[in-house]
Amino acid sequence: MTSSPCYCTALKAASRRLAALYDEALKPVGVNIAQFSLLRRVRRAETVTLTELGRLAELDRSTIGRNVRVLERMGLVALSRGEDQREAVVRLTPAGHQALVDGDPLWDGVQDAIDARLGPTGVLELFTTLRDF
Amino acid sequence: MTSSPCYCTALKAASRRLAALYDEALKPVGVNIAQFSLLRRVRRAETVTLTELGRLAELDRSTIGRNVRVLERMGLVALSRGEDQREAVVRLTPAGHQALVDGDPLWDGVQDAIDARLGPTGVLELFTTLRDF
DNA sequence: AACCATTGCGGGCATATACCCGCGATATGA
DNA sequence: TCATATCGCGGGTATATGCCCGCAATGGTT
After folding, report:
1. By CB atoms within 10 Å of each CB, which of A83, A117, B71, B98 scores lowest?
2. What is the sign of the dihedral through the CA atoms of A36, A51, A14 and A72?
3. What is the rounded distance in angstroms from the CA atom of residue A130 to the CA atom of residue B14?
4. What φ, ψ does residue A89 adopt, rounded to 5°?
5. Phi and psi of B3, rounded to 5°?
6. SS3 for B83?
7. What pLDDT, on the 0 to 100 scale, is given for residue B1?
8. What distance in Å separates the CA atoms of residue A50 and residue A63, rounded to the nearest whole number?
9. Which residue ranges form the domains of chain B, and what is each CATH number?
10. Could you say which nucleotides of strand C lie within 7 A of any protein CB atom?
């Protein structure tokens, strides 16, 4: 039936609500959850090109490029050329490292709160379902 | 642990993947899923103010205002003043109605595909979980 | 070596989203 | 009635996101 709830709209709304939760928690650090997540990826990779970062984050390369430039303006990451002169390599700055150190416990707090609300099986089921999309 | 998957990032990524599915299906109609969903809401309400539409869609009023203006430029909705001269009232145009008539079966197709992949219990569990966010 | 296909980016364009500010319209209380 | 508070919007600003185009670097073929 056409009047049934739209899965996409419901997912997007939940996504916005959840992002708002993380954003609120991360306010003291001055980054939102998208930026924090990107910083975490850079930390995990140590050095990574824009294209690779886009692949990891499942985001368009141009999107990654712009998002990284914002973090660069904030002084949280540094961009340089790779051996392959085409590549733009991203690395954390000391301030970027510090932002992660400061943000980690805040991020953990939100994750824990969600864990508590959903329970282990709930989390597992959710992730299994989301992977299918 | 800080290295566990971020619920928000996972949800956002799934949301993007799902939206891309709907967008692709709706291409013949020339609208994306966000616009189609908004059109559906307007149809359901017949006439509705921007603020009310924002409440229904769980979107900021200013966001709704801009999104509606895009639909207006496309000729799919019409804006007028309400009895309360402050209110901007939204209504579907004939073209807007037609877009919904054309899009409904395409949208149904995606919904059905998801139903088939998740099964009735899967869908129920997902929605129960999302509501908690 | 020269040519051509591929790859990595930047920039342009468009939509989506939120927050804030200010203006005008409406409702409320003295 | 008049002053004040509230409400509904529009516009400014900023980030997020994707698609397309063009440029420069790289790689592979002849």
Report:
1. A83
2. positive
3. 6
4. -95, 135
5. -90, 0
6. coil
7. 53
8. 10
9. 32-113 (1.10.10.10)
10. 7-12, 14-20, 24-27
* 8 A C-beta contact, residue A58 and residue B17: yes
Closest CA to A12 of B53, B19, B52: B19
Q: In what order do the strands lie in the sheet with B88-92?
A: B48-49, B88-92, B77-81
Q: Could you tell me which of B61, B70, B106, B108 has the C-alpha nearest to residue B88?
A: B61
Rounded to a whole number, what is the distance in angstroms from the first to the last CA of chain A?
A: 21
What digits encode the pLDDT tens for the residues A20-64? 999 999 999 999 999 999 999 999 999 999 999 999 999 999 999
Residue A101 near chain B (CB below 8 Å): no
Picking from A4, A7, A121 by the largest number of B CB atoms within 10 A of its own CB, the best residue to mutate is A7
Instruction: Note the pLDDT of residue A124.
Output: 82
